[in-house]
Specification:
This protein folds into three domains: 188 residues, Rossmann fold (3-Layer(aba) Sandwich); 173 residues, Rossmann fold; 122 residues, no CATH class. Strands 4-3-5-2-6-7-1-10 form an eight-stranded mixed beta sheet. It is α/β, with parallel strands linked by helices. The radius of gyration is 25 Å and the shape is globular. The protein is built from 16 helices and 26 strands. The longest helix is centred in the N-terminal third of the chain and has 16 residues.
């Protein structure tokens, strides 16, 4: 049965159409986090294209058999009569003349003539395409297909639109992709999708086993494998780490472990097995038939722990993963993000509520929370825009150096003086989602009240106070319906979440009307997750009465914002 698109997926498809209308020759790369539904976005976009232009031919490329099959099945699920086929040696299917062709790049990069005329290419996991060179399988196939059809267009999709060696996928005159469509454009940031319930949250616990990496040499932007093994693949560390995984993951059903090499993986697996854990190893050397069986056994919980090497960082969809162990240090923010993303898919049928991350490799300390990963810099990249920060009280963007919000007077906490050195927290205190676990609270909401908030020289805003049962004040926020830019967008989202909104009930035209309507029939959140931030309690996320409300609210918010 075809799936209904979530609002962020529909926005992603609309953003691709918008790009092609305004860019007659460019090749966009759509940024979408792991688990956000790239296969569905691709299937629906292709279906729409062929329904409007029936003669179009589309090639969907990726690098692993699992993704080829997954993307094909998503297409058939959305459109059972789709004229689709597969060209992949590992799947033993050769149908190169299909109108919609799902293919592995390894099976097709020398066979442009067999594929023939193509109008559009989708590349899943587009960060694997080289930036500064035309070498490689992807570029060879695309260059050959461009000879057949110079008007060919390419769409990339990835959660990590950068490479460790070159920075952004668009940074180079020779780059395949000309433009990025950022996740923020389509409300697809990781934090947003987690808050809205479309992705599973990650949580992390401090671990005692750590690797000493200060003396490990770096080459090509990452640790030298031979030197890394000397400090990581140590019997005592493997044993101690496996015991920590077993202790902290006692209530977890599906463990995914990332190792540095084959020998390391087998040693970790042996250490887990000794403790009675059903663990197996998956590497690039694993035969295809055995690989498929291992993955199936892992997904069906016949195997509790799967220790892998360079296999399950992309194109791996096991929704039930509820524990990830980082035992592979890396300097690559993209690899870190891809590994973490394996635990972010929803799996309510297995009882999964979140995914526990055990970071023996110090990746969170190295790269920061996954909601704040900074891509590697581009060489000679000019300075960007002036840095800004978001006010936790009214959500306005203000200058990073501001001590007080000019809109709501929130006082920002003074940064500690460190003699010019920024003190970074240790791995044990950094939350992988970027939230303060020590102060965060999940509070049940009983009621809310609304007031007019006025400040000289600024439009009036809606001041909202949430209360717990018994009258305890939980949090205060300012809803800036009549401001501009980001503040207005946030306010429109708030309005759509908390109050019914449709053509018969548009956004308010003035602050007095807003207050009156909000007091009369506002939808009160069931819960607020809050944490202390200066004088206020910052709202991390809210749980609305039903999941369906979120979906309708997001659509309404977009309608209100554009009206």
């Amino acid at each position: 049965m075809p799936l209904t698109l979530y609002p962020h997926q529909a926005k992603a498809i609309a953003s691709l159409y918008t790009f092609f209308r305004g860019n007659p020759t460019g090749h966009p790369c759509l940024v979408a986090p792991t688990g956000s539904g790239k296969s569905l976005i691709q299937a629906e976009f292709i279906k729409g294209v062929i329904e409007q232009w029936p003669t179009q031919r589309v090639l969907c490329l990726t690098h692993v058999r699992e993704l080829v099959e997954q993307n094909y099945q998503e297409m058939i699920g959305q459109w059972p009569d789709a004229p689709a086929g597969i060209d992949c040696a590992a799947l033993k299917r050769r149908e190169p003349t299909s109108q919609i062709l799902f293919a592995s790049v390894q099976s097709t990069y020398k066979k442009a003539d067999a594929i023939g005329h193509c109008d559009l290419i989708f590349i899943d996991e587009a960060h694997l395409c080289p930036v500064k060179t035309s070498a490689g399988m992807y570029r060879k196939l695309i260059d050959d297909l461009l000879v057949i059809n110079p008007a060919l267009r390419v769409i990339g999709m990835t959660a990590t639109p950068y490479r460790r060696d070159n920075g952004s996928l668009t940074y180079s005159d020779n780059a395949l992709f000309t433009d990025l469509i950022p996740a923020k454009v389509n409300c697809m940031e990781v934090a947003t999708l987690v808050d809205k319930g479309y992705l599973s949250a990650l949580t992390n616990e401090a671990v005692r086993v750590r690797y000493e990496l200060s003396q490990v040499a770096v080459r090509g932007g990452d640790y030298v494998p031979g030197e890394l093994e000397k400090v990581v693949n140590i019997t005592e560390k493997n044993t101690s780490a496996s015991k920590e995984i077993n202790a902290l993951g006692a209530a977890r059903k599906s463990w995914l472990v990332f190792a540095i090499n084959v020998d390391h993986a087998h040693n970790i697996c042996a250490a887990l097995t000794v403790q009675g854990i059903n663990a197996k190893v998956l590497t690039g050397e694993t035969p295809a038939k055995q690989r498929a069986q291992l993955i199936d056994d892992f997904k069906t919980h016949k195997i509790r722990a799967l220790v892998n090497v360079n296999c399950l960082t992309t194109g791996f969809n096991a929704r039930g993963v509820d524990l990830i162990a980082f035992m592979r240090p890396t300097k690559s923010p993209g690899l870190y993000s891809q590994m973490a993303g394996r635990g972010m898919r929803l799996s309510p049928e297995t009882g999964k509520t979140d995914c526990l991350v055990l970071d023996f490799a110090g990746l969170i300390e190295t790269h920061g929370p996954i909601t704040q990963i900074k891509p590697p810099p581009n060489k000679d990249d000019p300075d960007g825009e002036a840095p800004e920060k978001e006010c936790p009280a009214c959500y306005m963007l203000v200058n990073l150096s501001a001590r007080q919000c000019p809109y709501c007077q929130h006082v920002f906490e003074k940064e500690p003086e460190t003699g010019g050195t920024i003190l970074s927290p240790t791995a044990s205190t950094i939350d992988i989602m970027g939230k303060n676990q020590a102060t965060a609270q999940h509070r049940k909401v009983d009621r809310m009240n609304c007031y007019v908030h006025k400040k000289e020289g600024q439009p009036a805003s809606l001041k909202v106070i949430y209360y717990a049962l018994g009258g305890d004040q939980i949090a205060t926020e300012w809803v800036c319906l009549f401001h501009r830019g980001y503040a207005k967008k946030k306010a429109m989202q708030w309005w759509a979440d908390h109050l019914p909104g449709d053509k018969q009930n548009p956004a308010p035209i003035g602050i007095d009307e807003a207050v009156q309507r909000a007091k009369q029939w506002g939808i009160v959140p069931l819960y607020l997750n809050v944490e202390a931030d200066g004088r206020y309690m910052k709202i991390n996320y809210r749980v609305m009465p039903t999941r369906d409300k979120w979906t309708r609210a997001e659509i309404t918010a977009e309608t209100l914002l554009n009206s």
